[in-house]
C-alpha cells in the first residue's frame, strides 16, 4: 500500500522502516531539512537497535523514501500517518501545533480521498479537531473531498522500537468507518498473522487508551518507589519485597523496579497531559497527581543522597556518572533522571565525569562546553580522578563492573546506585561504600 508518514522521529522513522520492510511503499515527510538530508544519505539520526540496516535496505529497494516536500507526501499516500511530536504546553496540556499544522498541510494539498491516521499521542477529541481543521481548509479551497480521521496510537518502547513494531502486542484502531478499518487491516495484515492483535474501538477510546497505558506504567513505577522509601525507613529490602510481590501473577515483575524515577519523552508529558485533560472536565485525578509528585521527588533523590553524604557541599568533589540516556538502548535524554542529577551535583559545586554508551552526542548538544562536565569515552575513564560514582541508567555494560578498578580509582570509594544494579554485600566485599534505593546502605571502610 502507498503510505505517507509525517514526522521521522522515534515513532515515524521506525514505523516507516517496518512498514516498508513488509513491502509497503512508504514516503516519510519531515520539516527538518537537515534530518531529511541525513536520512536520504542513509544516516540515522537516532540510536535504535536494528534500525539502521532496515532503513538502508528498504531505501536501496526503493520502498522507503524521505522528503521535505509536503505536497508530494500528501499525493503519495492513500493512508497519511501523523507521527509528529506533541510536547507539553506551558500548562501541561499536549501542544497540538504540529498535529494541526500537518492537518492543514494535508487539506491544502489533497486532491483525492485520504485516510488520516493519527499515531501521535494526543488528547481525547483531537481526531475531531483534526477533522474540523481539514474541513475548514477544504471549504476555504471550495473543495469537496472525502476523508476519515482514524486514531491508531503507538505503543513502541524506545530501545526496542523495531522489535515492538515488527511484533506489536496489540494494534489499537479507533474508527467508526468500515472502509478505514478495512484499509488498516490490510496495512497491518503482515503483523497480524500469528493471532489477531487488532483491537477495534471508537476514536475517543483509542485516544484515551494510549494515555491510560502510559499512566498505568508510570503508576507502577511511582508505586514501587513509594514502597522503596518506606522500606528504607523500616529497615526492609525493597529488592526482596519486589520479588515477593512480583511473583503474584496479578501484579507481575515488570515495571516494578525501584530507581531514580521515570523520564523520557512519554511518561512525564503523558501523565501531565492526562492530569490536564481530567482537570479540564472538572474531575480531580487524585492518583495521577500523586504519581507525578512521587516521581518529581524520586528524580531528586540520587542527587540529594550524594549531597547529604558529603554534608551539603560538593565543592572540590568530582562525581563519575554512568548513564545519561533516560533508559538503556536509547540516546534519548528528554526528561532523563540524569539531567536532574547533574543539575543537583553542579548546584552543590561538583565536577562531573560522565559516560553513556549511546547518548554522548545528545549530552554534548544539551550541555555544550562546560568546565564542570567532562564526557568520557568509557566507564573506566569516567572514574579517573573521581571521588564517587553515581549510576543513573541500567545499561548492561554497567551490570558486572570491575569492582577492584572502581575501588582503586574512586578517591572516596563510594557508589550511589540509582538503579539497584549490585548486591550490597558484593560491593562491600570490595571495600566500597554503597547507597542504593530502598535498601540498607553500606559505609566504606576507612581508607588505608
Ligand atoms: N518516542 C516514543 O517512544 C513514543 C512512543 C509512542 C508514542 N509516541 C508519540 O509519538 C509522537 C512522536 O514522538 P517521537 O518521539 O517520534 O517525536 P520526535 O520528536 O522524535 O519526532 C517528531 C518529528 O516530527 C517532525 N515534525 C514536526 N512538525 C512536522 C510537520 N509539520 N511535518 C512533518 N514533520 C514534522 C519533527 O521535525 C521530528 O522529526 C508523540 O506524540 C509521542 O508522544 C512516542
UniProtKB/TrEMBL annotation:
Transmembrane segments: none
Entry keyword Glycoprotein: no
Domain UDP-glucose/GDP-mannose dehydrogenase C-terminal per the UniProt entry, residue ranges: 320-424
The UniProt record lists the keyword Oxidoreductase: yes
Annotated pathway: Nucleotide-sugar biosynthesis; UDP-alpha-D-glucuronate biosynthesis; UDP-alpha-D-glucuronate from UDP-alpha-D-glucose: step 1/1
UniProt-listed InterPro entries: 6-PGluconate_DH-like_C_sf (IPR008927), NAD(P)-bd_dom_sf (IPR036291), UDP-Glc/GDP-Man (IPR017476), UDP-Glc/GDP-Man_DH_C (IPR014027), UDP-Glc/GDP-Man_DH_C_sf (IPR036220), UDP-Glc/GDP-Man_DH_dimer (IPR014026), UDP-Glc/GDP-Man_DH_N (IPR001732), UDPglc_DH_bac (IPR028357)
Pfam family, one: UDPG_MGDP_dh_N
EC number: 1.1.1.22
SMART domains: UDPG_MGDP_dh_C
Keyword entries, A-Z: NAD, Oxidoreductase
Example GO molecular function: oxidoreductase activity
The reaction(s) this protein catalyses: UDP-alpha-D-glucose + 2 NAD(+) + H2O = UDP-alpha-D-glucuronate + 2 NADH + 3 H(+)
Family statement drawn from the similarity comment of this UniProt entry: Belongs to the UDP-glucose/GDP-mannose dehydrogenase family.
Name of the featured protein: UDP-glucose 6-dehydrogenase
